[in-house]
Amino acid sequence: MNILHMRYAVEVAKYGSINKASEKLLIAQPNLSRSIKELEAELGITIFDRSTKGMMLTLEGQRFIGYAKNILKQIDNVEKIYKENAGVERKSFSVSVPRATYISDAFAQFSKMLGEKPVEVFYKETNSSRTITNVVSDNYKLGIVRFAENYEKYFTALFEEKNLKYEDIVSFGYVLVMSENSPLAQKEVIHFEDLHPFIEIGHADPYVPSLSLAEVKKEELPDDGERRIFVFERASQFSVLSKNEQTFMWVSPLPEDILKRYSLVQKICPDNKKKYKDMLIYHKDYKLTELDRKFIAEVRASTSECIDIYQN
User: Fold this and answer.
1) In angstroms, what CA-CA distances link 131 with 37, 137, 222?
2) pLDDT tens digits for range 210-219
């Protein structure tokens, strides 16, 4: 379809007249009339009813002009964006990650390093399946995938199949976090049986692709708790933990400033023997940028502050 002819049709519809539209467009009337007829023939519809009173839109024509206006608006916006940024070097950074506070804390530190030059940054928190899709198909340059360690062979085989490079970030066991006013916070040692009267907060989208929800729950949730609150956005979890003393959550160890900010306490539960792993992924043919390396360095520094020291 000729975009120019589409513009002509929109102008004719606006003025209701070939003569007025031709004056506005600075095009000869016969040429404009021929362009409209060619457009109608190409689409197989009649856009205008012609009469001595002018050019009136048919029902099909009204529908077409509505589509045409939206298309032309998008084209104009694209042209405007690229003309305004012509010759401007714009850096970009994108990463898809699990909902982990040590990573978001690292990202906050990384954001201070962006400088003053034009830059676009995309930070997506989601599950492992979506992260892999984001890196393989949706133009995210980096991803961090979280999984139970007993799934490592499955994931590394999947990464190889998808032509992804992968690097260990950290291995860890989940800790318990709760309000400092929670009865759990007063216990020297917390066992699974101590958790039964309380409400567990868990992320509602599973980490592991291609497994049933029942299997995921078995692997990702350490016990068979009967009361759970599933959250889909991470910000709410700390508010609920802070305000509701009957709640707890299994997490990778949190930064001290987050614990203080929300008046939380984190404790090890010796009954929970499961280990988890966070792994960096990116395309094998992708060359890490300076921004990528800075972010990765901040993530590794954050593991030392939040996870390695706490668990060692």
Assistant:
1) 49, 10, 23
2) 444 444 444 4
Q: How far is CA 51 from CA 32, 57, 60, in A?
A: 16, 11, 17
Provide Rg for the chain, Cα atoms: 29
Q: 77-101, pLDDT tens digit by residue?
A: 888 877 766 656 678 899 999 989 9
Which residue is listed with tokens 């590794």? 300
- Gap between the Cα atoms of 10 and 65, Å rounded: 6
CA distance 140 to 296: 15
Which residues contact residue 182 at a Cβ distance below 8 angstroms, ignoring those fewer than 6 apart?
A: 198, 245, 246, 247, 248, 265
Three-state SS at 99 = coil
Rounded Cα distance between 145 and 166, Å, is: 10
**pTM (global) more than 0.85:** no
